[in-house]
Design a protein that fits this description.
The protein contains five helices and 17 strands.
């Protein structure tokens, strides 16, 4: 960002709370077009920040989230004070998303980025049957389950944690592979994978047991194969208040009752 007064683009959720916050902040800081802004500020919950990341990541601007929603793990507390001063003092962290390449039963190929996780879920009453290969080596020929997900460290406290997956420090350079209601093998709890590997999910009996794949908010139905790899070519910078940085928050989360 520039050393002077930063140019800001606000990306707000359509809730009353977020709209009120936007009106308050715009009185002090003029709204700027995203292409000309020094920083993108997201007002809402974690979903709003993820929406902003997907929409504006190609602009290579830093993102500063302020919590005006129900969940705000990736966000800073909302303050009406000196916003330029808050941004000047903020600490930065760089994140790389996952890139999903999904093939469907009708022959389509869909690509999407995931800053939190890629999740596969059964579409019908039938349990999914999924084969798992890592860097071309079959690691599990058949997992019978409701689904499975692959989470980034930043996303490890979201859906992954709800599915009883591990919380991962940002500096660990690993991804969480977590089953969702595994039936066979019943006691398999998932795995930690090096961040540079390619993970392939093969959908077995896909006609009888259809599966969807979702990269953050992008859903693809009736997939037959899903490849996932960390995208080192894409990165985003998140800004956090001193004492509120993401690494510390992830560490604290591991000691909550």
């Amino acid at each position: 960002m520039t050393t002077g007064t930063p140019k800001i683009h606000f990306h707000a959720a359509d809730t009353d709370e977020a709209c009120e916050a936007l009106a308050t902040l715009e009185k002090a800081c003029k709204q700027t077009a995203p292409e000309k802004a020094d920083v993108i500020i997201a007002l809402g919950g974690d979903g709003t920040l993820l929406e902003a990341l997907h929409k504006y990541h190609a602009l290579k601007k830093p993102f500063y989230g302020m919590n005006r929603g129900s969940v705000g793990f990736l966000l800073n507390p909302f303050r009406e004070g000196d916003l330029p001063a808050l941004l000047k003092q903020a600490h930065s962290v760089e994140l790389h998303p996952l890139r999903m390449t999904a093939k469907t039963k009708d022959g389509k190929t869909v690509e999407a980025l995931a800053f939190n996780e890629v999740s596969l879920l059964r579409q019908t009453r039938h349990a999914a049957k999924i084969g798992i290969a890592i860097d071309g080596i079959e690691r599990m020929p058949e997992l019978i389950c409701d689904g499975i997900l692959l989470a980034t460290p930043a996303g490890s406290t979201a859906y992954n944690l709800s599915a009883h997956g591990p919380i991962i420090p940002l500096s660990a350079n690993v991804l969480a592979l977590t089953p969702i209601s595994a039936f066979r093998p019943r006691r398999w709890r998932g795995a930690l994978l090096p961040h540079g590997v390619e993970t392939r999910f093969e959908i077995l009996e896909s006609a009888k047991r259809p599966v969807s794949a979702t990269a953050d908010s992008t859903e693809v139905r009736d997939v037959t194969q899903v490849d996932i790899r960390e995208s080192r070519q894409v990165s985003v910078t998140l800004l956090f208040d001193p004492g509120h940085n993401l690494e510390e928050r992830i560490l604290k989360e591991q000691f909550l009752p």
